Amino acid sequence: MLMRSQKGAGVLETLLVCILISILIGTVIPYYQKLTKEAREVVLQSSLVSLRKAVELYHILQGKYPSDLKSLTNEKYVIPIRQDTFFSGEYLRAQAVDADGYPIDPFGIRYRYDPKKGRVASASRGYETW
Known about the structure:
51% of the residues lie in helices and 15% in strands. It is an alpha+beta fold. The protein has helices at 2-62, 70-74, and strands at 76-82, 85-90, 112-114, 119-121.
């Protein structure tokens, strides 16, 4: 009789552990998804600021808005500060791009860009007005 109760207790303990693990997974996954979404939103905000500043810098230096955002990833600028001192850099640096070289947002979608007004916006669903 002692053996039967020990076998039953092992199955019951295993079942209890499985239930507890499933409860933990059920609470951790939504929390992880929420954190991932919030992190992507922060990256989207900072990327939009960087893109908009790059477009404005291009507009100031070139006198026109860039034809597309891809050109910002390829072009460099040089600003003469004094007679023999120059400041140079890239319009966009460390920006994720797709296979064609266009900047993409953290959700993997190209940014919307209006070359006439120089406006950059997200094309991801729910973030179009950012």
